[in-house]
Structures are given as structure tokens and as C-alpha cells.
Amino acid sequence: MNLLLAGDIGGTKTVLRLVEASDESILLTLYEENYRSRDFIDLVPMVQQFLATAAQKIGDSSPPERACFAIAGPVVNNAVKLTNLAWFLDSKRLEAELNIKHISLINDFEAVGHGILGLDASDLYSLQSGNLQPIAPIAVIGAGTGLGEGFLIQNGDSYRVFGSEGGHADFAPRSELEFQLLRYLLDKHDIPSVSIERVVSGQGIIAIYQFLRDWHFANESPSIGQIVRTWEEEAGKGERSVDPAAAIASAALEKRDRICEQAMQIFVEAYGAEAGNLALKLLPYGGLYVAGGIAAKILPLLEDGSFLHAFTHKGRVSSLLKSVPVYIILNPQVGLMGAAMNAVKLS
Length: 347
Known about the structure:
Distance between the termini: 15 Å
Radius of gyration: 21 Å
Oligomer: single chain
Helix content: 25-40%
Strand order of the largest sheet: 8-13-12-9-10-11
């Protein structure tokens, strides 16, 4: 048996997991811990602390043979500078300082692609059954801090996982209200174009709310308004004390604020439309998986039909997308699972 280390590293939180594995699969999680990323100057002291604690817990001080870390940032040649954290990670340095033979660094959304292959039925909610074709491509899309997109292609008895920068493609408005949103974002940020990520993400939820507020769509509730204003005032001051996106989504789910309800309606429809765009490019009859930290939390809003209507509403080729199976990933640790599964493959 082999000891493997998996990590899901973000600007705010890092999750580390020590697992026991065979040469082909993960057998058992031995120890897992969450850390505040900013409490450490680098990944090395965090991992050293984790391994020391794990050794006490499981009674085995043997170092892991392989490790894979999923990282929120662009990984080039097994090195990455984290987007929201002052860390620069290089696999060779980490191998030397941690005494681990093989370490792989992969983008966090690539890890999600690996992770969906290990999900159970209980980890998924079927939004559209479609017509599953086992050898067809698989698509993955996920809104969280940003918007990730990727795909999987079968290669013999396994799959190859590919990331993409699809979240930075142009936002394509489909209604007068969305055209007004586009103009608002162009003017507000003084930019020549608006990416879909500026709309379909946690930041996008806030941006849509700000647009509707400034457009005087409805009266602003004092409680939500104060949360958004606090968030705006804290811009550029480091970690913020409030989460307007979560507050807006919660108010919409509880149907207690008109601006929040409309903001989430725009968000869900834009999300579905972009998922449909990705599906048109890949025809993923192996399934389209909706990941990210938002989807599972707003499941009732995705179930009401707006997401699927926008997903399939593609004119003459709409019927093609009605055959694509669509799943919502309910397991928040799919990226960590993917990192562990990728570690198994290292040699």
C-alpha cells in the first residue's frame, strides 16, 4: 500500500488529505484537515504541520510517496503563482523540502475534472436525464469565485482531462435587461469587453445586484443594502468581512427581496446559457457536470426550469442539447477527490 497526499489550495482555505492507495485506486482516507491559507508563509510549513499531526493520529510517521495539489491559479510546467495568495509553488522545490518523491501541481478545475470520475450517485443531482452515451465527451462547468470550464475525452479505458479558459469568453446578452447589464459593466469598469465570468460567478451575483440597485429596479432592503455597501467600502483592504453573494442568494431563495430574486434569475439564466454554449462546442453526451461552490447551494433556483430553458434555447439546434445529461455536483470536495485520484497516477 502507498501513502498519498492530496490538497485543495485556495486563497482563503486549504484542505489537505492523507490517503492510503493501491497502484490503481484510493482505498481509505486516513486523515484530513482544513487550514486558513494566510496563516502560513508557504505551503511547506503547512504540510509539515499536517504530516506531523497525521503521524500522531494514525501512528505512522512514514512520508507520503506521492502528492498532488489542486491550486486556484494557472499552473505552467508544474509551477504556479497563486492568484489570491503571495505563494509561488514549484514541484521540484516542494519535493526537496517535503521529502516526497513525486509532486504534481494542477489547476483546481482540472482537479474537478478528475474528481467527477470518482463520484457516486448520491453526489449528483440529475437536472436533465438526456441520452447518456458512455464514450462521448464529458463537459464540466463551475461558478465559484470565478467561472471554470473544462472537458474530458475518453482515451482507451481511461479519460484525459483538459482545462480551458472558457470563463473569459465574451458575455453574450440575450434580452434587453442583459444588454443594459452589459452596458453597465462596460461603463463601471471602463473596459472594452465583458467576460462571462463577470456575470456567472460569485462576483457576478454582486455585480448583477449592483446593476439592478443602481438601475432602480426596486427598493433596496436595508439589510442587504448594508451588506453590499460594507463589501464595497472594504474593496482593496484585503479579506472582506461580509459575503454579499451568499446574502443575495439566501434572500432570493427565501423570496424576501425583489432585487435579490431578479439578480439570481439573471444569474441562473446566464449560467444556463453559458453551459449550453459549452455543450454546443463539445456535444457532451457523456454528461455535462455543473460544479463550483454555488450550484449546490442554490439548487431550488436551478430546478425551476430557467437554467434548462436557457441551456437548451439555441434556435435550430435546441433539440441536440435536450439529449445532453446534466448533473449538479453536490459533493463540495470533488476537487480534493480529483487531486487524490491524480496522485495515484503519478510515477
